[in-house]
């Protein structure tokens, strides 16, 4: 095997941005060091990943093919090998490929064999699968290249080994979720120990709508040891050769990893969609406080505009906590009472609704009046509203459509309430920004006097365990009752609430996937769904 | 071939409703006539279709398998054959099957071979595909059964013919779209002429979230003639034998077909989700007028509650038109001025927003104030808000998030503006309900003085042609300019607006698919999407 120097390019492309992504590719190609022999990009670096139905758009693919051809020509005078992962059209079919480009030519093409079509993935919808990848002989070294999902099964690596591969190289678009690093390691080690070949893993980094990519590209030697690792949630280009020792970035703690993931997810959503800052309704509660902290870390305090919108039910404690939080974060805090809007709606609706027999109607009006104020400030300033409901609330429908659910993005969307507490505590250890009282007090929506969340919901640790069992572990109510000896009515009620709130979630803002099974494209439940059992 | 009598059961199951669907199956089985030999249901009659990720829920499949077993036992004393299409688990894999049930036994199982995974379909996500179906010999007749998508390719029919099939029987879950009947006929005729076998086609009927099934089940003889056809958009059980002539329900006109499709889609969404009626903001414009007409036809005038919510920009003409429309439809019309809410927000925001330099901020507030009123009435009455934006508006983002986009459902979601006009005119021919002036006047959002839609949009016939070319025909801007000699800037601007509005559509209420490419699960575009070319 030749003593190559590999450049691992862990980059943050933008979906659809052919212009920008090819600039990034060209800049990387022109700036890598002289000694680099092989430049490896992440999956679909040309289009960004996942591009979804853009791949079915002929105009897009025509433009892509022209861009690829122009880039290939540009490599004419170079001896380096570029492994360029990209969608690629042949005979009107679109494949998910790696082009092996050198000296102005495409020398070899690798086709993705297994197209993931579960979880957040829809690759069978847009791509045609190829045969198992063949090795590419480059200056006497047999490169065994396979794409992402193909590393998660035995056949591609085995096929490459049988063809005499000297090394496995895997470009990836592998989105973050809490257990993903461990799962990747299990698969990589399995392929390495099956083939006794070293493995180079290059992953995308950055946020794209409902997913964030963590990077954490690595090199594993034939003894299954990680001998090089790139950082999490940062762009990085690292030169690596098996002859020299390399940097191994240490893994983050689980909580830090999640915090960095949601922060980058928000940062990229705002940046890639042209928002200069965000607007947050700061209530004095923990969800909006943590959201504001994340927003400050993602966008800078000067780009975070908080608004306290008290009603007559808002306590002095909440006003004080919101102010203390804004002070600690160094963000602007406006105070806009919603009382006048509440009165106006009260008058307008008086002839039509019996106020004493209206259920949650007037509670929801408070939440919606706040939504209108935030959206007006958003329209007037160009800042994006950040909604702040957590996964536990979104699961059981403890949120008001067009009220606190207003927003362009929700950083907490896929965090259970207990994770919100854990992240808040972790963030405070890096510098106190969320007043202790916000963490310690009983959570309340403050939509009527002396209300707390636990008036209508089980304690959050119980609620979260039931929800995780239903959503992440796919357990039945009876299995949950058996495992936790919870009250039967509580478990069945939570299940029922979970299904009933599907219509709200369908209209919720996006937020990044953190758990194994996020609401959104990862979990596709019908709204109209009469499945229920009573045990 | 034995002279069987077939019962074609074109029914309307509810997704997830194992209890209710099995009751329907049992009732049908017990009530069919003595002479019926073979009872054919539509695809996935047990679970409703599409059940999406419910299929991945073990608890759901466990319950389903128990229900199937109980039903099979119930057939013990019957000589009839029941073709029961259902999801079916074997060795932890879920298949999309037809069970051939008789005398208390499952005599034969057909597995769906081709799983559709394009458009609205996600079957590769939830099902494992089976081998090509084998014929089932029933009392000396070889039944060639295949499921839905398997009729759209040559291999299954050919395989069945080679095995000596006497007849092709196809259970379907084929959703409505404007060209679907013609396309089904092309495929059915092709299979019949390839095999010279008669074909029985049984389709689901009814609405399920974003799709509506049209039924229109039929029988084709070996000469490719339709010799029996069931009605569109109605439940129907028809006994058919090749020895007797049968009823052929005539096809509806295209416009009537669309009208009936959206009406049933709304009716079933409301019914299956437990809403007794709907609330509509009646503006005096054509979209809300047509929505109200559809709602009256779907739910009855007594279940449609309209609200006119004038602002100072609302013309007397609009007030008169809304009243005339409500009178013609016989629905309740409340009048709630939004002026007080506008003033309240004006005061609340005065210290924060420069009113003279606020763009569309205060226009959006009007729309959102109306949304709050409708949602309050919804909370207080249990009626569902019907939003009324058409596909042309949703395409270019000519709608206010959390304002006129508030709603549980949108009957017009997949109708272009020109289709809205056509449906209004068709509906008036059945009985005048939409005053002519509403159809004739220039469309306006009335959010500022003397505003019309065409101040900011091209004429709707031009806009619709550009949009249909981009969305339904997948043409590039250059192709559109070439074919229609439209102004280049207009075409590129519409394309840009289409992509920019993706974030709004992601939070829009559901509505039924009518066109070949509906917004929603049928067209999965990223929000973050930088693809643009300038020609």
Structure characterization notes:
A six-stranded mixed β-sheet of chain A has the order 5-4-3-2-1-14, covered by helices on one side. With 535 residues, chain A is an alpha/beta fold. Chain A has helices spanning 18-31, 58-74, 123-126, 154-162, 180-195, 254-272, 286-299, 316-329, 339-349, 361-381, 391-396, 417-429, 436-440, 460-471, 477-484, 488-500, 502-505, and strands at 6-10, 38-40, 81-90, 93-102, 105-111, 136-138, 141-145, 167-172, 199-203, 205-208, 211-214, 218-220, 226-229, 236-240, 278-281, 304-308, 332-335, 384-387, 409-410. Chain A is elongated, with a radius of gyration of 26 Å. Chain A has two domains: 6-244, Nitrilase/N-carbamoyl-D-aminoacid amidohydrolase, CATH 3.60.110.10; 257-450, 3-Layer(aba) Sandwich (Rossmann fold), CATH 3.40.50.620. The model of chain A has no long low-confidence stretch (mean pLDDT 97). The first copy, chain A, has 17 helices and 19 strands. At the A-B interface, helix 1, helix 2, helix 6, helix 9 and helix 10 of A face helix 1, helix 2, helix 6, helix 9 and helix 10 of B.
How would you sum up this structure in a few lines?
The structure is a homodimer of 535-residue chains. The first copy, chain A, is α/β, with parallel strands linked by helices and 535 residues long.
Supply the key terms.
37% helix, 535 residues, six-stranded mixed sheet, alpha/beta, Nitrilase/N-carbamoyl-D-aminoacid amidohydrolase, homodimer
* Fourth-level CATH superfamily of the largest domain in chain A: Carbon-nitrogen hydrolase
The CATH class label of the largest domain in chain A is: Alpha Beta
Number of helices of chain A: 17
- Determine the oligomeric state from the structure: homodimer
User: Which structural class fits the helix and strand makeup of chain A?
Assistant: alpha/beta
Q: For the largest interface in this structure, which chains are involved and how many residues does each contribute?
A: A-B, 86 and 86 residues
The CATH architecture classification of the largest domain in chain A is: 4-Layer Sandwich
Count of discrete structural domains of chain A: 2
Q: What is the terminal separation of chain A in angstroms?
A: 63 Å
Mean pLDDT of chain A: 97
The poorly predicted ranges of chain A are: none
Helix % of chain A is 25-40%
Strand order, main sheet of chain A: write it out.
5-4-3-2-1-14
Q: Approximately how much beta-strand content do the residues of chain A carry?
A: 15-25%
Number of strands of chain A: 19
CATH fold call of the largest domain in chain A: Nitrilase/N-carbamoyl-D-aminoacid amidohydrolase
Rg of chain A:
26 Å
The biggest sheet of chain A, with number of strands, parallel, antiparallel or mixed sense and barrel status, is:
6 strands, mixed
What is the 3D shape of chain A? elongated
């Amino acid at each position: 095997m030749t003593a190559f120097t590999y450049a691992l390019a862990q980059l943050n492309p933008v979906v659809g941005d052919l212009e920008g992504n090819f600039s990034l590719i060209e800049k990387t190609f022109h700036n890598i060091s002289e000694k680099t022999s092989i430049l490896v990009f992440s999956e679909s670096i040309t289009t960004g990943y996942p591009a979804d139905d853009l791949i079915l758009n002929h105009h897009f693919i025509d433009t892509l093919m022209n861009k690829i051809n122009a880039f290939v020509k540009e490599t004419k005078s170079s001896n380096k090998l570029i492994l360029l992962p990209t969608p690629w059209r042949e005979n009107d079919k679109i494949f998910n490929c790696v082009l092996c480009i050198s000296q102005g030519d495409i020398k070899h093409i690798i086709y993705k064999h297994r197209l993931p079509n579960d979880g957040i993935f829809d690759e069978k919808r847009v791509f045609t699968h190829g045969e198992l990848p063949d090795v590419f002989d480059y200056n006497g070294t047999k490169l065994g290249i396979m794409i992402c999902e193909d590393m998660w099964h035995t056949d591609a690596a085995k096929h490459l080994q049988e063809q005499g591969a000297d090394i496995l190289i895997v470009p990836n678009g592998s989105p973050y979720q809490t257990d993903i690093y461990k799962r990747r390691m299990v698969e990589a080690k399995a392929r390495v120990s099956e083939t006794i070949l070293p493995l180079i893993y290059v992953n995308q980094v950055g946020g794209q709508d409902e997913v964030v990519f963590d990077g954490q590209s690595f090199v594993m030697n034939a003894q299954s040891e990680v001998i090089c690792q790139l950082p999490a949630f940062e762009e990085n280009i690292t030169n690596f050769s098996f002859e020299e020792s390399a940097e191994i970035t240490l893994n983050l703690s689980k909580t830090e990893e999640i915090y960095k993931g949601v922060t980058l997810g928000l940062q990229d959503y705002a940046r890639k969609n042209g928002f200069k800052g965000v607007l947050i309704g700061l209530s004095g509660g923990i969800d909006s406080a943590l959201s504001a902290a994340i927003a400050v870390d993602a966008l800078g305090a000067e780009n975070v505009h908080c608004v306290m919108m008290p009603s007559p039910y808002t306590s002095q404690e909440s006003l004080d906590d919101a102010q203390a939080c804004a002070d600690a974060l160094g963000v602007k805090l406006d105070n806009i009472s919603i009382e006048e809007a509440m009165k106006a709606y009260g008058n307008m609706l008086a002839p039509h609704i019996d106020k004493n027999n209206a259920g949650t109607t007037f509670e929801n009006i408070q939440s919606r009046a706040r939504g209108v104020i935030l959206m007006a400030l958003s329209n007037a300033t160009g800042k994006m509203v950040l909604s702040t409901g957590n996964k536990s609330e979104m699961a059981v429908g403890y949120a008001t459509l067009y009220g606190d659910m207003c927003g362009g993005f929700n950083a907490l969307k896929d965090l259970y309430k207990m994770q919100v507490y854990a992240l808040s505590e972790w963030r405070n250890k890096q510098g106190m920004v969320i007043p202790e009282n916000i963490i310690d007090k009983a959570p309340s929506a403050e939509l009527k006097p002396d209300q707390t969340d636990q008036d209508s919901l089980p304690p959050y640790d119980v609620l979260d365990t039931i929800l995780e069992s239903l959503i992440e572990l796919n357990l039945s109510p009876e299995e949950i009752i058996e495992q936790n000896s919870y009250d039967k009515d509580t478990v069945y009620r939570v299940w029922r609430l979970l299904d009933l709130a599907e219509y709200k979630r369908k209209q919720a803002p996006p937020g990044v996937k953190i758990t194994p099974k996020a609401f959104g494209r990862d979990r596709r439940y019908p709204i109209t769904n009469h499945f229920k059992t009573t045990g």
